[in-house]
Amino acid sequence: MFLIASADNTVIQQVLDPARLELPAAWLLPALLGGLVVTVLGGWALYRVLRGFGPAEAELDADSFVLGIPLSFGALMLPWALHYLVRRDAVLSFPLEAGVLQVAVALGCLALLRHNPWRRRRELRQPWWQVRAAWLPRLLLAWVLAYPVLHAAMLASVAFARLAGLPVEQQEAITRLHERGDTAWVLGWYVSAVGGAPLWEEFVFRLVLFGGLRRLFRGNGQASPAWRSVLPALAVSVTLFVLAHGFWVVGFFPLAMLSLILCGLYVHTRSIWPSVLFHAMHNALVLTLQFYVM
User: Fold this and answer.
1) In the chain, N or C terminus with fewer CB closer than 10 Å?
2) What is the per-residue pLDDT across 27-60, written as a single tens digit (0 to 9) for each?
3) For the segment 123-178, what is each residue's pLDDT rounded down to a tens digit?
4) What is the C-alpha separation between 256 and 86, in angstroms, rounded?
């Protein structure tokens, strides 16, 4: 409330919008190093919190992975289909329609994957669908700890871009938020970013790619070291998550860190829903700050 009620929010706007953040040249290297230190230390603290959910055991069974690949491809193609087949720039110009469609498609993909008719009997166990109320306090703690970590990663990204002489630009979706302020526009962005995006992104990047690839890389070697399956699966999932958001220079560090946190949530809870809820709360906070502070 203090931020929203502040009479002079120039500093706040610079903090929230990396394109407006002005750092003296002498501060760039300390800001980069300091941001990375906070990111690493905060990431370690978050890892300790996530480990409290339980051992890292989440994997997607082979039959679900085979079905999940085409479903994921279809979900990822949805924004481009809206852009080229339905109406031009539909995702950004008509967020309410896009958001409702995203939610419907993601829930349909999740339901089909859970009730996969081609799954063999020995693969019937579906731990990724479970929900436990006991997870909520630790999940909220992780969300609170994650904000300063992600913000430190953003500061490091801005400093790195300035040092490298690269342009500092905000994501197009963020810049489009401020074009209108009517109820339908604001509601549409909340439906799309808080409902649709977390559902289909967690389905694609965490459940299918990370969970399925972890099982694939592990193979039949039950006794093989965990890193042999976790690290390649993480690399693919995190890289594609960043690329799907445009690979904008300033967002690389925070997007990669956010993806690591979400993978950690999925693998330690063995369920997709905690990462969906965390992702939704993160997007809701970003939207609220953009709409009511910026």
Assistant:
1) N
2) 889 989 999 999 999 999 999 999 999 988 888 8
3) 666 789 899 999 999 999 999 999 999 999 988 988 898 888 887 777 767 777 77
4) 31
Q: pTM for the complete prediction?
A: 0.88
Q: What residue type is 263 in one-letter code? A: C
